[in-house]
Design a protein that fits this description.
The protein is α+β, with helices and mostly antiparallel strands. It folds into 3 domains: 1-47, no CATH class; 51-329, no CATH class; 334-360. It has 6 helices and 15 strands. It has helices spanning 36-46, 124-135, 143-148, 218-223, 252-272, 333-358; strands spanning 16-19, 24-27, 33-34, 72-76, 83-87, 93-94, 101-106, 116-117, 153-183, 188-211, 233-234, 244-246, 280-309, 312-319, 325-327. The strands form 2 sheets. Strands 4, 5, 6, 7, 8, 9, 10, 11, 12, 13, 14 and 15 form a 12-stranded mixed β-sheet that branches. Strands 1-2-3 form a 3-stranded antiparallel β-sheet. The radius of gyration is 29 Å and the shape is elongated.
Amino acid sequence: MSGLNEYKCPSCGGALHFDSASQKMKCAYCGTEIEVSALEALDAQLSEDRPDEMNWQENGGSDWNEGTEPDLQVYLCESCGGEIMADENTVATSCPFCGNPVVLTSHVSGTLKPDYVIPFKLDKEAAKAAYRNHLKGKMMLPRVFAEENHIDEIKGIYVPFWIYDADVDAAFRYNATRTTVWNTPQYTYTRTSHYSVFRKADVGFSHVPVDGSSKMPDDLMEAIEPFDFHEAVDFQTAFLSGYLADKYDVDCETNNARANERIRRSTEELMNGTVIGYQTVVPAAGSVQLRNGSSKYALYPVWLLNTTWKGKRYTFAMNGQTGKMVGDLPADTGKLVTWQAGLTAAFTAVTALIIYLFFL
């Protein structure tokens, strides 16, 4: 067992010492007393605390087989550096990221072939309809933007994703309190009970996606999730016919950190949700041990829509499997000022009414 002077008071954070009179651990600052047996259980748990261990053992993707490579061409955007794959029938195109023309450079040799692909389920007309629906009901949207705006460009593109599977051994510890208040004719009493709460669980993660394109905003890709991996199939170049495919430029090893972040955040949220029935809960420590970590390389379908308004370029993305549409919209500054003024006036009126009623 660790030295008793290492323990901190759960009430004020002061050092605890053994009080021979009460046979308990006592805080010299606030007087809180704790049973030694409770600290023994805590000490046993503390000895199990470990740092995170989140290592991945293998990467996805495979080499192109002879005979499949010539079906795809690589187009280079000289403006933003994007490399776009397309079938050999595509003779000219423009960059879906910045809109500039791209030029043919080479075949796809030197890169990995995807393991899986989720084929497009929704066509260009569905993307246009989703965009128009995305504009509806936006109170702060400039009326002219909605009425006169047109889509500059719309392209279906397969976005590269690294897909992670793993099992996780999770152990988390929390400091929690319950407070009881009661009254007597003379006084009001408050009693705060402190608890150390422990949670352990085995959690399985399947197909955690992390996009492998530095040109594609991560928040945009996470916003159009989820993709249903049950509809993924083994990759064939035929699925790219009529579409573009972004060539990954962030490898699996580099993306491991983002995969770890997503897995740990999800694990924390899951564990935190099990600690209920307390007035306060403060995380004290947590450990995530990753097992059987593996990754695969896949292409996911995305419709990209670009439009320009007042010299600014706006990009919208739609999940080509589910139809979920996201994208930032401009705000009408006039409407915003009017709305803020109305809100201030309403708050002033309510305040004046409260003051009036108070003095009645």
